Amino acid sequence: MAVKPKVLVFGISRNLGGTEVVVSRFIGQLSDQFQFDTFATPMPLQPEYVAGDNRVILMPMRRQRPLAHVRQMRQYFKDHAHEYAAVWYNVNNFSNLGFLQLAAQHGIPVRLCHFHNSDYIGNKLNRMLSGKNKAKVPGLATSLLACSNEAGTFAYGNAPFSVVNNAFHLGEFAFDAAARQAVRAQLGCEDAFVIGTVGRLTQQKNHQMLIRLMPEILRRRPEAKLVIVGGGALDGALKQQVADAGLAGSVVLAGMRSDAAALLSAFDVFAFPSRFEGLGVAAVEAQANGLPCVASEAVPHLTRVSDSAQYLPLDNDTAWVDALCAASRETFAENPALLAKFDLQQEAPKLAAFLTGERR
Question: How far apart are CA 143 and CA 114, in angstroms?
Answer without folding.
Answer: 9
